[in-house]
Amino acid sequence: MFGDTQILIERCIRQEEKAWEEFIERFSGLLYYSAHERLRRNGIRFGQQDLEDIVQAIFLEIWEKRKLEEVREREKITAWLSIVAQTRALNYMRQKRERLLREEEFFRLETLKIDAESQRDDEEFIEYLEKAIETFDAREKIILKLNIIYGRRHREIAQFMSIPLNTVSTIIARNKKILEQRLKKLKENG
What confidence tens digit (pLDDT) does each residue in 104-132 have? Predict the structure, then answer.
């Protein structure tokens, strides 16, 4: 089996497409399992999409950066891949957590830039905000109100509405600029 694997690795190094397909088919289960188990053992909450992103990123990095050329002990490729998957899984989740925390802070009410003065406790401002949000579709209204007016975190909203966390983050990110423009116009028009 090792000789077969060594030949496959050599073909992958030469970037033969069929070899890469076989490499991915042969080792994707190992990468999924290794990433899954590392995250589970560390008590990190994750979803299937996270695992797919992790595994895809590993294969992409191996291909683009020609990482197989760096593997000296090719007979230990499964151990090497397992370690790579575990490390990448932890790094991916750490980066995802940091990104989500930054996004959550970025989209809170106090970060909306309407004018220089702070107006978040101003009832009139809340009224403008609700008018501006009213023009969005029903799901977007709920998400925006929960996040901006009631200060709920993206994760809380996703759980409450039973939708993916990424969907909540995308809706807030996509509509933030629109909301700022609408608030500015409402404020100017009184």
Answer: 555 454 455 444 344 444 566 777 777 78
Phi, psi of 56 (to 5 degrees): -60, -45
Determine the structural domain holding residue 173 and report its residue range.
Answer: 107-189
- Domain-ending residue, one of 97, 130, 146: 97
CA–CA distance, 13 with 78 (Å, rounded to integer): 16
Where among 97, 126, 146 does a domain terminate? Answer: 97
CA 140 to chain centre: 20
Would the pTM count as exceeding 0.70? no
Question: 114 in helix, strand or coil?
Answer: coil
The burial class, CB within 10 Å (0-12 / 13-18 / 19+), for 15 is exposed
